[in-house]
Amino acid sequence: MPIMFGFASQRRQMLDAELERLVSEMPQLGMVRMWIIGDLAMGRVTAESILDLVLIQETDEPWQRRADFWNIHLRPRVGVRFSVFTSEEFDSHSETDPLLIQAATEGELVYG
User: Fold this and answer.
1) DSSP labels for 40-77?
2) DSSP-based three-state secondary structure for 38
3) The domain spanning residue 63 has which CATH number?
4) pLDDT band at residue 8 using 50, 70 and 90 as cut-offs
5) How many domains would you assign to the chain?
6) Which of 31, 36, 43, 83 is the most exposed place for a label (fewest CB within 10 A)?
7) Considering the domain boundaries, does residue 85 fall inside one?
C-alpha cells in the first residue's frame, strides 16, 4: 500500500475553514466565549483530528443535551465536539473541571 502524504495539512485547512464558519455564525445563536482545545490548539493535527471546542452559553439544557443544539443549528462539515458550559459553571468549576483547565492552559480563545 503506498504511503500518502499531505492529509494532515489538508485536514488542518478543513478544520480552520470550519472554525472560521462557526465563529461567524455562533454568536447570534448565543455563544458568549469559545476556546479550541485538543489537536488543533496544540498544533498536532492528523488526518483524524476534529474541532474540539469549549463554549460558554447561557442555557437551561442539561449538560448531555447542550451539544445537540449546536449540531442541529450548525450542521458541522467536519467532526466537532462541543463542550458547553454556562458562565456560572465556568466561574465555579474553572479550577476543577478538566476541560476548563485544558481550555485555560492549552486552549486558544477564539471568541469572547
Assistant:
1) HHHT---TT--EEEEEEE---S-HHHHHHHHHHHH--S
2) coil
3) 3.30.460.10
4) confident
5) 1
6) 43
7) yes
Q: Give domain status of residue 46, yes or no.
A: yes
Is there a domain that residue 30 lies in?
yes
pLDDT of residue 6: 72
- The rounded distance, in Å, linking the Cα atoms of 40 and 16 is 9
Residue pLDDT, tens place only, 42-78: 999 999 999 999 999 999 999 999 999 999 999 999 9
Q: Global pTM?
A: 0.90
In a domain, 1, yes or no: no
Beta-strand pair 51-57/80-85: parallel
Residue matched to cell numbers 469559545: 34
Grid coordinates representing 94 are 474553572
Q: Are 87 and 11 in contact (CB under 8 A)?
A: no
Rounded Cα distance, 84 and 5, in Å: 35
